[in-house]
Amino acid sequence: xxxxxxxxxxxxxxxxxxxxxxxxxxxxxxxxxxxxxxxxxxxxxxxxxxxxxxxxxxxxxxxxxxxxxxxxxxxxxxxxxxxxxxxxxxxxxxxxxxxxxxxxxxxxxxxxxxxxxxxxxxxxxxxxxxxxxxxxxxxxxxxxxxxxxxxxxxxxxxxxxxxxxxxxxxxxxxxxxxxxxxxxxxxxxxxxxxxxxxx
Length: 199
What we know:
The protein has a domain at 113-118 and 134-196: Fusion Protein Consisting Of Minor Coat Protein, Glycine Rich Linker, Tola, And A His Tag, Chain: A, Domain 2 (2-Layer Sandwich). The strands form 3 sheets. It has a 3-stranded antiparallel β-sheet. It has a two-stranded antiparallel sheet with strand order 1-4. Strands 5-6 form a two-stranded antiparallel ribbon. It has helices at 2-30, 54-60, 162-170, and strands spanning 113-116, 133-142, 148-156, 173-175, 177-179, 182-184, 186-196. The model has no long low-confidence stretch (mean pLDDT 78). The chain contains 3 helices and 7 strands, in the order H-H-E-E-E-H-E-E-E-E. It is α+β, with helices and mostly antiparallel strands. The chain is flat, with a radius of gyration of 48 Å. The chain crosses the membrane at residues 6-29. Residues 107-199 form the TonB C-terminal domain. Pfam families: TonB_C. Residues 56-85 are annotated as: Disordered. Its main location: membrane.
């Protein structure tokens, strides 16, 4: 019932509004619009001609100075006795009789050495209660493949950063410990992971 009333009242209302807009537009079109007289256009010449000046004419009359004649080439040497001998010098290698043990100077044994250390990401949840610089000391083992494992936190200035420090150390890569030219486990490596809050 309500939609029927709206339909009956809406159609005549829309006809009246449309007719009013049509008459308003017709009145606007019939209205005379006086245009301002066109002003004289500004003439711009982008191909300006360069006039000859006294400086340009002076450059045309400039003459380069003549150079002195070059010196003659050095005289050729045709005397074969003036050339160096290319035979070389014959000498005997001296013999040294001494019993010296100098060693090889190479020791293949070495401790685990860091290759890749990825810096930690500062967690957003820890930024509100953190100072400008925080440190987490971690301990871990290095496998014969150079991977870090058994990561534990030894000491920390902010416990909120412990998990981020351990995740960072998990991605580190080491050269393994070498004993008798064989890779071995390196246990108990300790290092500090520093977090710096950029402001």
